[in-house]
Amino acid sequence: MRFDSKQRLPNVPPLLDGQRKIALKGISTKELDAAQNVLQHMQRNFKNHLSKD
Question: pTM higher than 0.90, yes or no?
Answer without folding.
Answer: no
